[in-house]
Amino acid sequence: MTEYHAPDDCLSRAAAELVTVFEQLGAEHQALTAEAKEITSKERRGTVHRMAERIAQAGHALDEIVSMLATVHGLRVLGINSQLSKDADGRDYSPLNTLGSPGDTLYEAASHIQEVARTLGKAYQPTRKHATLARARCPEQMRTALVGLRAALDSVCAELVASHDEEAATECTPTLEFLSALEGRVCRTVPTQGAGPTAEEVVAAIQANPDIARAAASALETTTV
Predict the structure, then answer these.
(1) How many CA atoms lie within 13 A of 51 on its CB side?
(2) Of 17, 48, 112, 220, which one has the fewest beta carbons inside 10 Å?
(3) How many helical (H) and strand (E) elements, i.e. helices and strands, does the chain have?
(4) Which among 98, 106, 82 is positioned nearest to 164, based on CA atoms?
């Protein structure tokens, strides 16, 4: 069997990030599901419902990806790497296929992570009639999820490059950039509104400039007419 060093930390980091992503998607799915139940417009309700379905789809895919990374780890620890069976003379015998391949499984995991990114992108794809719906209901949790997904993909790609798959980095770059753009677009938070001037500050401003009081009185008269 093939001799391996201990699995690289990139694999462990990727798995940990994906677990975080999976956990953070829960709040967004919950919020979208609750919102869909409250909407009276059939069309708007359908849009929000599809958003929730895409979040759920991403969550199911993450379960499979984490299992893939665990498989890569296990194959490496066991020293299994695409072994062929042998014929009567001890030569490689291909008709029985091969045992597991850590490299192939890792590459497949990277492809699945990119598919999850596309699924989340579809969840927040603005529609022509309801473009304002294309936003995160729980922006902090979704920001954590998107940052984690980007970090996981980056770690998996780094692991592939370390395994001499140099093209992996090039293939992953567009998705990494897409996730950054998606985060910026859908995870905007509303700035906290200030409490406004205190009564003492208002009095001080009027005393310093009586015209402020006259302008305020004029404005109130105009709006109440």
Answers:
(1) 30
(2) 220
(3) 7, 2
(4) 106
